[in-house]
Write a structure and sequence with these properties.
heterodimer, A: Four Helix Bundle (Hemerythrin (Met), subunit A), two-stranded parallel sheet, B: 273 residues, alpha/beta, 5-stranded parallel beta sheet, 56% helix, globular
């Protein structure tokens, strides 16, 4: 079977597939199998998966928010991956340089939160997870979890809020504090009854 | 008496479900220290109509004002929070530090910073509300006394308005509250509770006395023991229904020590950090 290039796609949501004959299926690693008249073709295992930037090299910030988000998520993923390869105990400045760039991407991603509450909640959590670490470096487990969450978000940026909840749980399970520090100042509503609601 | 179990009141439930992560974890640890932990559905009802309702209001206020400082002002006005002005400045400083600093963060004007902070808080509060709802019956070894007239319905999120809608705020009463007949049969306990709070002048105690008197009236009055009476019982419910081998675990220790003590039940104090 020849090598090829595979674009990750959710067949159920892609308009090109609606009304076409045959059936489509995708494996967990996003390879697509296509069956028409009993003949099945499966995309090769070693096919290259394109990044959004490679897929849309000519697009810039005038592009739609989802395209911008995909590019920024890729940038963020790259920076945190590179940071994870540096021992902050040995070279903190290089590590922190990468994390600052990741934070910058997250701030820009936060500006795209109208994509949906699931997307917004995930970016909000990632942003505050890094901010709340302050000058402390992420542990190996925390780095892996963040990378996993960003990858999942890049695969499905328009995720439902309920799906985002699972990812936020993963971040908290790795001992990341994802809460905006000013929220607690708002939520102390217990003492006394509200006068008028 | 060495208590094997704890009977969770609404203050602990709210602490374990809605507070910041560290506080939630601390409250859950306190519950787990007992072999048996019992959560009455009455506490879920009080929590739903109290603390959860306030959180939903806060979420919707952030969606409505799209401004952090306007939401702070609304809290200040409605929840008697005199220290809120200082809080506002502190919060704005924190938010601005994080959300300003990038051309594309779109938080480059005070108004946009307000919106960015309001959204950040709203998204987090929405998550906390959803998580609290999901976990409300999973905190203890037992859930006690389902209330047939309390619907315990989930809220829903309106994608268009960004508001969380609560389905209803009242019980589905048939003739009267499902707890009423059971309590009427415990005249001795009702009298003891009335004696315990006879000198109290707070509004909640006055309402509690009215509800207790209504249960004691003979013949049974035409006016039904309704949802408002049920809610007015409040701490008296926990004193009445706490199992004998359990202590009432509460951060509202003073009230429950007095009411529980009247029925020879003990309250254990949970100190809120």
């Amino acid at each position: 079977m020849p090598n090829g290039t595979v674009i990750p796609i959710d067949r159920n949501q892609h308009p090109s597939f609606t009304g076409m004959p045959g059936s489509f299926d995708s494996s967990p690693d996003h390879r697509i199998s296509i069956s028409v008249d009993g003949n099945t073709v499966l995309q090769p295992e070693n096919a290259k998966v394109l990044t959004p930037a490679e897929l849309y090299p000519d697009l810039d910030d005038r592009d739609g928010p989802v395209i911008q988000a995909l590019r920024l998520l890729t940038d963020c993923l790259e920076q945190i991956t590179l940071a994870g390869q540096i021992d902050p105990g040995v070279d903190f400045t290089s590590y922190d340089e990468r994390m600052m760039r990741a934070s910058d991407s997250l701030r820009k991603l936060y500006a795209l939160r109208d994509i949906g509450d699931g997307f917004g909640a995930s970016i909000n959590a990632l942003m505050w997870a890094i901010r709340n670490k302050d000058t402390e470096a992420l542990s190996g487990r925390q780095t892996s979890t963040m990378l996993e969450v960003i990858k999942q978000l890049r695969n499905k940026p328009m995720l439902h809020f309920d799906s985002a909840m699972t990812r936020l749980d993963q971040l908290e399970d790795s001992e990341l504090n994802i809460e905006p520090p000013f929220v607690e100042l708002l939520t102390d509503l217990d003492p006394g009854e509200p006068d008028e609601l | 008496m060495n208590y094997r179990g704890c009977f969770i009141d609404t203050t602990i439930l709210a602490e374990a479900l809605l507070k910041a992560r560290e506080n939630r974890s601390r409250a859950r640890t306190a519950i787990r220290q007992y072999k048996r932990s019992v959560l009455p559905v009455y506490a879920i009802k009080e929590w739903q109509y109290g603390a959860l309702k306030n959180f939903i209001w806060l979420h919707n206020k952030l969606a409505d004002t799209r401004s952090f400082s306007r939401t702070i002002r609304a809290i200040h006005k409605n929840f008697r929070k005199p220290y809120m002005q200082g809080t506002l400045l502190e919060a704005l400083e924190l938010g601005a530090e994080m959300l300003i600093g990038s051309d594309l963060s779109q938080a480059d004007t005070p108004q946009k910073t307000q919106l960015a902070m309001a959204d950040s808080a709203r998204l987090h509060i929405r998550r906390r509300i959803d998580a609290a709802w999901r976990e409300r019956r999973k905190l203890t070894t037992e859930v006690f006394e389902e209330l047939p007239c309390f619907p315990d319905n989930a809220h829903s999120f309106n994608e268009e308005t960004k508001y969380i809608d609560s389905q209803r705020q009242n019980c589905d009463l048939q003739k009267e509250c499902c707890l009423a007949d059971g309590f009427r049969a415990r005249r001795g306990d009702l009298h003891k509770l009335l004696t315990a709070i006879k000198d109290e002048t707070r509004l909640e105690d006055k309402k509690r006395r009215t509800a207790l008197h209504l249960l004691l009236k003979r013949p049974k009055p035409k006016k039904p023991f309704d949802d408002a009476n049920c809610r007015a019982l409040g701490d008296a419910y926990f004193a009445l229904q706490c199992p004998q081998d359990c202590a009432i675990l509460t951060s509202n220790f003073k009230d429950l020590e007095r009411l529980g003590g009247a029925l020879r039940k003990e309250a254990h104090q949970y100190k809120v950090p």
